[in-house]
Design goal:
It is a single chain. Helix 7 (about 170-190) links the parallel strand 6 and strand 7 (about 200). The chain has a single domain, classed as Alpha-Beta Barrel (TIM Barrel). The chain is α/β, with parallel strands linked by helices. About 40% of the residues lie in helices and about 15% in strands. It binds pyridoxal-5'-phosphate (PLP). Pyridoxal 5'-phosphate (PLP)-binding protein, which is involved in PLP homeostasis.
């Protein structure tokens, strides 16, 4: 298992570098985040020891349980799953960044808890660029308005935009929803909001990372291609489904 993970990591880095070469981008501008839902802590540790520095969990419980093993390791922990407001307090114990900010009540709760703790937090705004009912995230039309509302929340560092995008066996069908995230960022830039002139795009997974990089991704979130297939319920990003 250890060897497989190291081999897979190498292959994923090669895919990232190839995609960068093809689209004339600098590989330094595309980070790899390990999507580690359902992956045992020992396997995550293997990847961290191989040099990885970014991990992302979807569920508070997994974040907490694995922290016992991974807590001391030098790695940035992102939360990438749907976040219920009643779990904010717990998630804040472990996460350095929340990529799934998708509604005002969640922003309000984060602001409230972070103010109590007197700290700031990096966030990505999640956008439902594929318009699928099953996916979380703001509608593309509402992102600018949402940003106008939260831009002055002193505890939130808006780092960028995140999307899952449409997954399909046909590669080209995945492109439009990824391209849309960049279009939304252009709209935000056009609005010239103070402090928001360097937003990262978090998009691209095992299936679509090449296309995502061609469309401007700065962070791909990869699980399956590194850790193998996981046993899944029907909705992997829905915090409610497996509890
Ligand atoms: C699981 C997951 C990923 C990674 O998906 P893979 O297909 O396993 O690479 C990326 N982003 C989110 C939000 C996820 O839940």
């Amino acid at each position: 298992m250890k060897n497989a993970i190291v081999t897979n990591l190498k292959a994923v880095h090669e895919r990232i570098e190839n995609a960068c070469r093809i689209s004339g981008r600098n590989p330094a501008d595309v980070q790899l985040l390990l999507a580690t839902k359902t992956v045992p802590a020992a396997d995550i540790r293997t990847a961290i020891e191989a040099g990885e520095i970014l991990i992302g969990e979807n569920k508070m419980q997994e974040l907490r349980d694995k922290n016992e093993v991974l807590g001391q390791l030098p790695v940035e922990r992102h939360f990438i799953g749907h976040l219920q407001t009643n779990k904010v307090k717990d998630v804040l114990k472990y996460a350095n960044c929340i990529q799934s900010l998708d509604r005002l009540i969640l922003a309000d709760e984060l602001q409230k808890q972070l103010q109590i703790q007197n700290r700031k937090l990096d966030v990505f705004i999640q956008v439902n660029t594929s318009y699928e009912e099953s996916k979380f995230g703001l509608s593309p039309e509402n992102v600018l308005d949402f940003i106008q509302k939260i831009k002055n929340y002193p505890t939130l560092n808006i780092k960028g935009l995140m999307t899952i995008g449409l997954l399909d066996v046909e590669k080209e069908k995945m492109r439009p929803s990824l391209r849309l995230l960049k279009t939304i960022r252009d709209e935000i830039y056009a609005a010239k909001i103070e402090g928001l002139n360097n937003l990262k795009l978090s998009m691209g997974m095992s299936q679509d990372l090449e296309i995502a990089i061609e469309e401007g991704s700065n962070m791909v979130r990869v699980g399956t291609s590194i850790f193998g297939n996981r046993f899944l319920g029907k909705e992997i990003w829905n915090e409610n489904s497996a509890e």
